[in-house]
Amino acid sequence: MTLSRRDFTRLVAGSGALAAMGQLGRTSAIAAPNGSYRAMVGVFLFGGNDGWNMVIPTDGRHSAYLAARGSVGIKAPALTALTNAPYALHPAMTALRPLWDEGALSLVLNAGTLFAPLTKSTYASRPDLRPTNLMSHADEQAHWQGLRARDVSLDGFMGRITDRMGSTPLPSMISLAGSNLATLGRTSSALVLPSTGTLGRSGYSASGNAANAAKNAAIDALASSTGLGAITEGTSRDINAAYGQATTANAIISATSTVDGYFVNESGAALTSDVARQLMRVARMIEARNSLGHGRQTFLVSQGGFDNHSGQVAGGNNDTGTHANLMRDLAQALAGFYRAMQALGMGENVTAFTMSDFGRTFRGNAQNGTDHAWGSNHLVVGGNLAPGGIFGAYPDPVLGGANDVSSEGRFVPAVAQEEYIGAIARWHGVSDADMPYVFPNWATWSTAGRGPLGLFKT
Predict the structure, then answer these.
(1) Which of 88, 97, 358, 419 would disulfide-bridge 79, Cβ 3.0–4.6 Å?
(2) Which of 413, 433, 453 has its CA nearest to residue 135?
């Protein structure tokens, strides 16, 4: 097979410094809503987060919640209550309560993959309208990142947003979560940064022995090849440019920054979770936005470990367990990140939001865990959020009830991914003309009374 330069670039992009390649010319179709900087930060919770224990009703529905959740339900006294709201957060998420009180946290209830508006009845009678392979990790991760509920995605929404942006010397789309579909565009790809350490040349060694010196010389020769044909020379230019981009990125992520001091727990100890380390590096890249020439930045970070079929809660104490530890790490990392943004004067210019494969069954299983389901609850953090902070609709918590397509609490989503992420994309600056490009099924979710959630003040 003969590869063009673009084909080669897409194949090598997404691994270390080489992920910076592929930033070819493109039109600048991202409009700044008010001429100011904006950044969107997607936090993907891999494995399928139990959003039903992340956001919990505290009104009359709490008794039905406890009855249906069984082995994994959390009783009211332990919950992180939210002021003037009929909902609470998981007991381990106390770090986010001040953000709620400041209006910097919003809840999105029962969001998930939808091809078309569905009810329990139409789900049963119209299989042609169901998303394909629901409740499969790989497929649902692709649904969230590619936003094609019944088709294969070869590119993702963050990549498609970046396709419409002007190019910069260092890519403005950056992943701390490795190479993922979300950050693959048709003409763009992300700079992939590690959560620890720095970028290096693959195969390059600083050791001074003769064998390493010869290998290093060969790598240098490839990066500076001339007279060997258009494809080889083009590849060499891209590799050499990627080395330069890696040097720029390394200087930012390896330096001590004032933002680091905000990533601490309640006692002042530094946060050590991987999601906190990723968000700290995002904060450093945002701090460097002006020197990088970035008027818009798009980030993907991740947290794993959410596929808790067993041991989600500790037997006899549902306030603790695997999920509680994950929720604590997430809450502390998001709170630290928001405080860092405030310190930079960027609180209103940056929005972080959660995504996940799918929700979990409302009914806990016999192993103190939960199984694969569908809709789930999500969090949005930022200083430009609209007052009120609650969007979507919490489902009927009765097993087998009006929103449950099973008998275990697999709820039809009330909010489509396009309505949720579409609101953030518009705030980020995606024009109305470009929404169908970024969201392939946009026509379905922008008509007949459907549309982006009113997440923001402006």
Answers:
(1) 88
(2) 413
pTM for the complete prediction? 0.89
Q: What is the pLDDT of residues 50-97, one digit of tens each?
A: 999 999 999 999 999 999 999 999 999 999 999 999 999 999 999 999
**Number of domains, the chain:** 1
Task: Give yes or no for a contact between 15 and 22, defined as CB atoms under 8 angstroms apart.
Answer: no
Amino acid identity, position 368: N
Residue with tokens 């290998």: 215
In which domain, by residue range, is 159 found? 5-445
Show the beta-strand stretches assigned E in 55-182. 55-57, 80-81, 87-89, 105-112, 173-175
Instruction: Assess if residue 431 is contained within a domain.
Output: yes
Q: Are 438 and 418 in contact (CB under 8 A)?
A: no
Residues forming a β-bridge with 174: 191, 299
Here the tokens at position 143 are: 């649904």
Distance, in Å, from the CA atom of 327 to the CA atom of 89, rounded to the nearest integer, reads 9
Residue 120 near residue 404 (C-beta atoms within 8 A): yes
d(CA 281, CA 279): 5
